[in-house]
Specification:
This protein is an alpha+beta fold. Helices cover 17% and strands 47% of the residues. It has 2 domains: 34 residues; 108 residues, Immunoglobulin-like (Sandwich). The chain has 1 helix and 12 strands; from the N terminus they run H-E-E-E-E-E-E-E-E-E-E-E-E. The strands form 3 sheets. Strands 1, 6, 8, 9, 11 and 12 form a 6-stranded mixed beta sheet that branches. A 4-stranded antiparallel beta sheet has the order 5-4-7-10, with no helix packed on it. It is globular, with a radius of gyration of 28 Å. The termini are far apart.
């Protein structure tokens, strides 16, 4: 069966096939010319920071949940974690709001937040914490063991 295509369509098809064959022949050479040790970072990676959350835990039992919330480009982002250690990627410059919820407030009440950046650290006993995300931060939600006499029996072990 012979198809008779108009001359302009045959010419266009021929040019397309030629371009595709040239592109496929040039691609391996172009890839081989790039150094293999070069790491390419996305532009978005330059504008984000890492927020690592540590929550008091003993063994496989985590003593609370932390909720991370921030607004970015008109959208509210909210994530919760009940893992001993979690890392979030957050846009640089946004204000991050952290809230905590003890797994059992009568047994493991919340004690304090510790926020650290590099070798600097500060603590607060407030139930919620807000700060501007200008660096990579490590935040710890510390819970204590409540004894039957009403005092605290000590701190939970931190998993790092």
């Amino acid at each position: 069966m012979n198809l008779h295509l108009p001359r302009s369509l045959r010419a266009g098809t021929g040019i397309l096939l030629l371009a595709l064959s040239l592109a496929s022949a040039a691609a391996p050479a172009a890839l081989a010319a790039q150094p293999s040790s070069r790491v390419v970072h996305s532009p978005a990676a330059k504008h984000t920071q890492r927020l690592t959350i540590h929550i008091t835990a003993t063994g496989s039992t985590v003593w609370g949940t932390v909720t991370v919330r921030y607004a970015y480009r008109g959208h509210t982002v909210q994530r919760s974690t009940s893992q001993a250690v979690s890392t979030f990627t957050v846009p640089r410059g946004v204000t991050v709001h952290l809230q905590q919820q003890p797994a059992s407030a009568s047994i493991w009440p919340f004690k304090q937040w510790t926020i650290g950046q590099g070798s600097k650290a500060s603590t607060t006993g407030a139930a919620a914490l807000s700060f501007k995300m200008n660096h990579n931060y490590q935040v710890t939600a510390l819970y204590i063991l409540q004894t039957s006499s009403g005092g605290n029996g000590g701190y939970g072990q931190m998993t790092r």
